[in-house]
Write a structure and sequence with these properties.
With about 350 residues, this protein is α/β, with parallel strands linked by helices. About 45% of the residues lie in helices and about 20% in strands. The chain has a 5-stranded mixed beta sheet, with helices on both faces. The protein has a 5-stranded mixed beta sheet with strand order 8-7-6-9-10, sandwiched between helices. Strand 9, helix 10 and strand 10 form a beta-alpha-beta unit. The site of 5'-O-[(R)-(carboxyoxy)(hydroxy)phosphoryl]adenosine has 19 residues, from helix 6 and helix 7.
Length: about 350
């Protein structure tokens, strides 16, 4: 007898995207609706938490309704609701969590709280049907830079993390400094194609006592110092060269640490995730390094790299399949650690 399909409604509101999706059997995305607030926050040069929360409240019902209708299903067809409950902006997270709890309370549909990083990693399962744990993963987003050992579905070990800025945060700060504005990552990616990545030698920061940890604040300062010194000398800097040289400094370190971790841990499979994983230079450099080292590389399409609810639905499916559900006392946890419940 054919097993019954499991449909998950995923909800994501941890930062500046209000998103809902319907996912079938953990791998098939039936709908993926994302309402981005980027235009609003661009006015302020970054995400304003209070504005983000208010916008989530305005949009969330509509986004969930669209996700259900685009998938051609009704709420009564849904087997579980997966929602991001951390980490992220507390006010923003609370909107998704309260919404998911209200639907769960009203309908009796089970609730599954999802860790945002687990969601990012799980985005890889959508387009790579053959990918299964164990594998090594690099999560590079606006808030995180983590090297994670994915031992099984829902079982993670963090091998390395950033000691200061996240990779995406560095992209956003440097973009602002060179006048590209918010959000910086995609803009640096685009402008760098016109620049010379070897024009300026920026530092590749090593963390003394750790092979796998990252540090990007020194690189950010080096870029600011470079811009200052150009200004003092009355020289104009070449925006595309600064962008490309900075991007190269970030990608070199990400590639080096990732390959070292994959090899040292004896893995053959490696998956990238998070907004920065859509960076074209990082993808190209990682492609080349993995080919050289005979490592199977995975990354999601850009739409599944940046924040979305399909990835939350996928992660929730595997938790739900493992018998993990959350109570109606589920709360937003802004600094939630991976692997904690
Ligand atoms: O995963 P994400 O959407 O949100 C977080 O969980 O933080 O990541 C957003 C981050 C931002 O810092 C953005 O600048 C960066 O991902 N990003 C990129 C690119 N696209 C998005 N960074 C570099 N290159 C890109 N193409
Ligand atoms: Zn994210």
């Amino acid at each position: 007898m054919k097993e019954k399909d499991i449909l998950i409604l995923g909800i994501e509101s941890s930062c500046d995207e209000t998103a809902a999706a319907v996912v079938k059997n953990g791998r098939e995305v039936l709908s993926n609706i994302i309402s981005s607030q980027i235009d609003l926050h661009t006015l302020y040069g970054g995400v304003v938490p209070e504005i983000a929360s208010r916008k989530h409240i305005e949009k969330i019902n509509q986004v969930i309704g669209e996700a259900l209708s685009a998938a051609g299903v009704a709420l009564s067809d849904i087997d579980a609701i997966g929602v991001t409950y951390g980490p992220g902006l507390v006010g923003a997270l609370l909107v998704g969590v309260a919404e998911a709890k209200a639907i769960s309370f009203a309908t009796g549909i089970p609730l599954v709280g999802v860790h945002h990083i687990e969601g990012h990693i799980s985005a890889n399962y959508i387009e790579h049907k053959e990918l299964e744990p164990p594998f090594m993963s690099l999560v590079v987003s606006g808030g995180h830079t983590h090297l994670v050992k994915v031992q099984d579905y829902g079982v993670y070990e963090i091998l390395g993390r950033t000691r200061d800025d996240a990779a995406g945060e560095a992209f956003d700060k440097v973009a602002r400094a060179i006048g590209l504005g918010y959000p910086g990552g995609p803009k640096i990616d685009r402008v760098s194609k016109e620049g010379n990545a070897d024009a300026i030698s920026f530092p590749r920061a090593k963390v003394e006592d750790s092979l796998y940890d990252f540090s990007f604040s020194g690189l950010k300062s080096a870029v600011l110092n470079y811009l200052n010194s150009c200004e003092m000398k009355g020289e104009a800097y070449v925006q595309a060269d600064v962008a490309a040289s900075f991007q190269k400094a970030v990608t070199d370190v990400l590639v080096e640490h990732s390959i070292a971790a994959v090899k040292a841990q004896g893995f053959r499979k490696f998956a990238m995730a998070g907004g920065v994983a859509s960076n074209s230079a990082l993808r190209a450099a990682m492609d080349e390094a993995c080919k050289r080292e005979n490592i199977e590389l995975y990354y999601p399409s850009p739409v599944f790299c940046t924040d979305n609810a399909a990835m939350i639905g996928v992660a929730a499916y595997y938790e739900f399949r493992n018998g993990v559900t959350s109570g109606l006392d589920l709360n937003a946890v802004p600094n939630l650690k991976l692997g904690e419940r």
